[in-house]
Structures are given as C-alpha cells and as structure tokens.
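Practice set, problem 2.
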Amino acid sequence: MSGTETDATDASAEADGTPADHGTLSVVGIGPGLPDHMTKRAAVVIESADVVIASSLYQEFLRADGTIPPEERTDVDGIATRDDGSTQEIVRSTMGRQTELARAAFDYVREGEDVAHVSGGDPSVYGKSDLVFKMADEADATDVPIEIVPGLTAALGGAANVGAPLCNDFCTVSLSDKWRGWDEIEEKLRAAAISGFVIVLYNCWRNYEKAVDIVREERTDGAAVAIVNDAGREDAGRNGESQFITTLGEAADHDDKVSGMGTSLIIGNHETETWRNDDRTYLVTPRGGRDVDDF
C-alpha cells in the first residue's frame, strides 16, 4: 500500500474513533461448524485472523477443511503455521473462561491483532456477542472495533432437516435457567403457546419435559413436534445428526432422542402439517393457509 493510501486509511480509522494501530474483534458464527454450512465471510475472517479463540470442538471443525492450520503444525503455545509460512495463534475457549478471554481479545486488538472469537450457530442467538459487548462496556473498551459475523443457527438448520416448519411466525425459547429464573421461562413458553407461534426450544438437556408439559396446557396433544440433534453436523457432533417426528402429547416419552446440548425441539402450531413421501415424514407450516394460486 502506498504512503498516501496508508495515510488515508489511518485518517479514516481515526475519524470513526478507532485508533489506526488497532486490529478488529470479529465474533464469528460458524453455524453447525462443518464447512458446508459456514458462510464464506466467516471462513475468510477466521482464515485471515491473527488470533482465533475457539473451543476444542470448534477447532476440530475448523481444522477439518483447513480453515485453521492442522494440529500437527500447532505448537504447545497454540502458535500455528499456515501454508504460506505465516503464523496464527489458536486460543482454546471454555465455558469458564469467557470473561477472561473477552478481556484478552481486547488486548490483542489494541496490539494491532485481528481476532476471530468463534461461536457456534449464530453469535447473537444464545451465542457470545452479548457477552463481548457487555465486557467491552465494563472494560471501557470503546476503542475496540467489534464486528458480528452471522452464522446458521440451530432453529434454521433443524427446520431444514425436517421440512418447512418455520414458514409462518415462530419464536425461540432457551430452557437454560443459568441466566434467568424458571418462572420467566415458563411465562414466555405459555405466551408463545397461546399466541400460536411455532416454538423452537434450545438447551433441551435442561427442563425439556417441564417445557413440553407447559405447552401442552395451551396446545393440543396432536401438535407435531420434531426432535432434532446436531443439525448440520452429520457424525461430527457430540452425538450425531438425527431427527425424529412425534406429537406434543408423546414428546416427553422420547427422552432417548434428546441427546444433550445439540438437541432442539420444534413444536408446531395448529397449522403445522405432516407431509410424507416414500422415504420420510416432513413438517410444513403453511404461510397463512393460502392456496398455491395465491403465491
């Protein structure tokens, strides 16, 4: 880059409040994690980052197609060598280190490094983006430029696996009571059930039977339900990709189908229908019950 171009870039950075010597913090959603379901933008940001913060599982996904260098080219300090000889620092993320790593990311950016903070699914759908902004506020990190790179969330990936259940109004509800009390979760579930939303439940390893019982109070037992595991991850996830169609009245009887953190439940409404071909059963929620001729 010429001196004139460099000066112009620096001036632009300073004009929007970002010091010219800073890097960028990108919170990157990688969807399920496998390359077929990761956006091109997400791959480019991760490949070009100076520092990548990711859990062990996400590192496995990213190494599978060369988005980050293989483990054999990564030393004990996490310094990985790319094909062109340049290096990239790989930092292991765990649930217990989220705040620590957010602060570390700010420091890297202030040192001029571009940081990719990896989140599964979409970083703004029960992901990491809110934590990054909260920590930036607490750490007075208004000088750190933050970019959110969206990804494919489980609701969309799971819906695609079972047909077209989200073609009308829908909502998502997390069953994790780590951040809010169960009374609040129950209130949201009941309101969603009464309102006729198709409901996608996240974090189903917690309280999913209780959630089903609450929705049953407001919705017919015959409502269609899909239990989806590790959508988009094939056999690479924690328990393997699968989908199972049942009814609301019987959903809690299939605990063996709810395998853990990668499980989502899609609860249909009064318009959701089953559609079958020779191979499998799908769920379809028509868009307002319109006839084909109305499209």
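Problem 2, part (b): a different protein.
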Amino acid sequence: MIRPSFQFYPGDWYRDTALRAVSIGARGLCIETLCLCHQGAPYGHLSMLQKEGGEDVVRPILPEVHARMLGMTESELVPLLAELERFKVFSRTSDDILFSRRMVRDEKLRQVRASGGVKSLDHPNVPRPKAKNEFTGKASLQPPLRTSPSPSSSSSHSMKRDTAAMNQLTDAAVAEIYNNYPKRVAQRPAKEAIRHAAERVAKAENISLEAALQRLLIRVKLYRDRETAKGTDQQFIPLPATWFSQERYDDESLMRLDNAVRPGALEKLRLEAASA
C-alpha cells in the first residue's frame, strides 16, 4: 500500500548545507526524486519491484527511466544527479540503488511503533492519543498519566545532581566524537550537530543517549580511518556540522563496515585505495 503523503520540513530543507550548495535545478530534481522514493520498494528507495521467475525482485530505476518518469532527457538528468550525489544528498545501497537516508530512517521508526501496537503508547516519545473535551467536543491531547507522587525537595536536588553528572558525561562523549572526526573546524556548531544526531539516533533506535553517542563514535572512527586509507584531501571532507546534520553516519558503506568490523578490514580498505 502506497501512503498518500510523507513528512516534509521546510525549515530542515532550507537549513541543509548540502542542498544550499547545489544549483536550483539540482534541488528541483531532489524533491521530484523524493516523490519517486516515496513510491519505491522498499520505501525511500529509487527502485521498483519486478517479477522474475515468479518472485518479486527489487531493481534500481536506471537513469534513462528516471529521466523519462520526470519528463527530462537523460543528458539533462545525469549532471544534476551527479551534483546531488557529490554533496551526499542521497546515498546508494550495495546494489547501486539510490535512497533517502531520512525516509528510510522514518520508515524504520514507523515500523517499530507499529510492531509495538498499543504498548508503544507506553513509550514517552510516542504522541499521546487525542481525547474529546466533554464540554466543547473538540479533540485535545491527553496529558501523560502521573503514576507517582511529586518528588520531594530532597529528591529534586538529587535529580539535579544526576542531570548535571549526565551532562558532563555527554559533553565528554561529544568532545571525543568531535576530536575523532577527520576535519576539526567550527567546533561549536559541530558539537551542537553531534548532540542533535545522538538524540535522533536514540529516539529512532529506542536506545539510551549514551548508547547513541557510542554508536556515533564508532561510525566516526570508521569514517576517519576509511578516508585516511584513501588519502582523501581535506577539501573533500565535509564540515563536521554538515556531516552529522546530513546523517552521513548512516551511509550504507559505513553501516556495512560497522556490522562487519574485524581485524584486517581497514587494511583491506587501504589495499583497495592503493589499487584504485
């Protein structure tokens, strides 16, 4: 079943550094391609299902078909698409299928919530159901039920101390992530982007903030070592704030490395880079 709509945030669109860096034509291609990805299978991918031997097989939409679907010529589409991919607006799977990282992440979150059924309402991040006001008949958000008495003054102080300690741990983890990124510039916006990224990961994966920060640290180290192995020039390394805001830590290549980190994996990257 194809959903009739998908979430679009104009504020995020205008704040996205990569989108601001590409031409207006490339941005137009971006939103048109997002609409196609909304209809893709799996969701968020520029792909289609084809019957082969009685089975459904996912195939990428090739540039000539992509162009035809948008009323363009292939020669018009290819340079604009290359522009978007150069700034990592889209990513590709190992099967060369273009996909939107955000759409894939949002779909995963929807699936997690759906699988939780009614119990998902116990999670504090899930929106509360609406109830009608008995006097006005209008819908209003139900406040979360209080199941315990208000904390005493002493427990409030204890909570403040715990919060302060947690903030210190978070600050240290954010600093470590920043220090391991291969291009350390614009420290303040970079650390803010890291915090927001950790919050998004924690919410999407339903894990603690500490676990999300640890996951980001692993991805950053993998990215740093991969680019070092390739000998990538600093001018081609994105600003850290851009990298985290664009959720580049969820790029398919880094996810594969993260799931298969083992002795010799980075050495293999160096050999591949040397032979390229």
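Answer key, part (b): The longest strand covers residues 47-52. Confidence is low (pLDDT under 50) at residues 131-138, 140-147.
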